[in-house]
Design brief:
Nucleotidyltransferase, domain 5; Rossmann fold; 508 residues; alpha/beta; 5-stranded mixed beta sheet
Length: 508
């Protein structure tokens, strides 16, 4: 028995199958046997403990994928096996608080006697294990900050994207959790648009700019997200594309089709709702809602998975930073877009630094294109000084300013230059006759899809202004603008470029 008890303490997967019970929709109480999504999350958490000694994780997932079930079981395991520890779970509303505590009580009540500590005190939302001096509490995020004045070893924030005052709550929580080995802080949520606390924290974690690791779980990892096929089932072109990109089978496709139909009610676009509720990838989960975009996530995902060899002129788009935005750069050669890079803060807070970044690109033979850029297009709104300085340094033939508000090449079709280059980008991307390739990057996809538009009195598409996108959604599509800049005008390939003699002027 001692060997078994030790294994129950050390091996959560073994513990969950033998000690924890969940209520299923069709079979009643059943052991918690981890599904693929739960197994993946658990492995990521355990790996982080090995690497850092603690857990700091942010989980982005679709509906009903078992993340809360896993974390709840994980924390019951820890609070019933360790002395003097506290677990605290915070949900977004009262109904969810009740549901998670019912799950917790079910876990505890069905524990085998030899791993079930006595409860010295209990109320509606708390269990206290007297002999161990450990506890498990569940609360609801409201208007007032929580966590201050407490000491918590294990914290689970559920549906953080839907919290009121999420920033204040998390400040209190992070002060309550010691920065010590063995502690765990887990934030999980479905997406709720962009610009909120959860979205911002996800972006930081994804870039490796916080102590939190980003964990994404796609909907199709769920075995139950399948539906028996009707006779004569055939797939659409869009579904065929999903098969190619994600290796979905027909039963998954049919489940998805029925779920989209279910979500299409009261004027709601079921396809868009599905992407938010059941995302394929992180960028799709945060997709901008409300109004159509020039570019959809489906177009992006297809292009992300293509393999294309570039040919023709090598063009660079540069969207300089303004107001705290990124200094974003994108490269393109024909049907191949690649080479994203960005700079923020002190990396690009002076003219000399900005010019040096551009000059290095202009002077460097690209390993993909096998040459230096044929042309660099720079947004003149924030990059006027950059363009002027590069011209002084001898790059006038290879550097051009693009005024977003200027007259387009085709004024009958486009209202201004920014509308023109974005729509040219869209045409290039959605063209079914020739494959195109873009960086396989969620941030690029999010920027490209942040392209809502309306129509003017001449039936021309008018993109939202960049400041409007930033105000409403909390981010600026800098990579999108940099990508669009590569379509500013036709570029002639110069195969006979002469090396410039800068003399003393090559000092930035």
């Amino acid at each position: 028995m001692s060997d078994q008890r030790q294994r129950l303490k050390d091996d959560f997967d073994f513990y969950s199958r033998n000690c924890l019970k969940i209520r299923t929709k069709d079979k009643g109480l059943q052991p918690l046997s981890l599904n693929d999504a739960q197994t993946y999350i658990h492995s990521r958490l355990e790996q982080q403990i090995v690497e850092t000694g603690k857990v700091r994780a942010i989980i982005l997932k679709g509906r009903q994928q078992g993340a809360s079930t896993l974390v709840g079981g994980r924390f019951i395991h820890k609070t019933t096996h360790n002395k003097g520890v506290r677990a605290f779970i915070l949900t977004h509303d009262g109904e969810s608080t009740n549901a998670l505590f019912e799950m917790t009580e079910r876990y505890y009540e069905n524990l085998p006697k030899f791993v079930k500590p006595s409860v010295s005190a209990a109320n509606a939302k708390e269990l206290h294990f007297g002999v161990l001096d450990s506890g498990y509490k569940i609360g609801t995020a409201g208007n007032k900050a929580v966590g201050r004045g407490q000491t918590i070893q294990y914290f689970h924030g559920s549906e953080v994207a839907f919290w009121l005052n999420a920033s204040e709550h998390t400040k209190g929580i992070m002060q309550a959790v010691p920065d010590a080995d063995g502690t765990e802080v887990i934030w999980e949520s479905t997406a709720n648009g962009v610009g909120n606390f959860f979205h911002e924290q996800w972006k930081l974690a994804e870039k490796g700019l916080s102590e939190f690791q980003a964990i994404f779980v796609p909907w199709f990892w769920q075995d139950e997200y399948r539906k028996k096929l009707p006779e004569g089932f055939t797939t659409t072109e869009d579904e065929d594309a999903l098969v190619k990109q994600y290796k979905l089978d027909n039963s998954q496709l049919f489940w998805r089709r029925m779920k989209v139909a279910e979500l299409t009610t009261d004027g709601v676009d079921g396809g868009k709702a599905f992407k938010q509720e059941y995302p394929m990838n992180a960028a799709e989960a945060f997709q901008v809602s409300g109004g159509d975009g020039l570019i959809t996530s489906d177009h992006c995902m297809k292009a992300r998975k293509e393999t294309v060899t570039g040919s023709g002129p090598y063009v660079v788009g540069v969207d300089p930073s303004r107001g705290g935005d990124r200094f974003a750069i994108v490269r393109r050669q024909g049907r191949k877009m690649y080479g994203m890079e960005s700079y923020i803060g002190e990396q690009c807070n002076a003219l000399g630094k900005n010019v040096a970044i551009c000059k290095k690109i202009l002077d460097t033979k690209c390993p993909i294109a096998k040459k230096e850029p044929d042309m660099m297009f720079v947004d003149y709104g924030a990059g006027a000084d950059i363009v002027d300085r590069l011209h002084e340094l001898g790059y006038k033939k290879r550097v051009k300013a693009v005024h977003f508000g200027s007259t387009p090449l085709n004024p009958e079709k486009y209202t201004n230059k920014r509308n023109e280059i974005w729509q040219e980008l869209s045409t290039w991307l959605v063209d079914e006759s020739l494959p195109v390739m873009i960086p396989d990057d969620d941030e690029m996809q999010a920027d490209l899809c942040a392209s809502p538009y309306s129509y003017d009195n001449k039936d021309r598409k008018v993109l939202w202004r960049k400041d409007r996108i930033k105000e409403k959604y909390g981010f600026s599509p800098d990579y999108g603008d940099a990508a669009a800049l590569t379509f500013a005008e036709p570029v002639r390939q110069d195969t006979k470029k002469k090396k410039l003699n800068y003399g003393r002027s090559n000092v930035v």
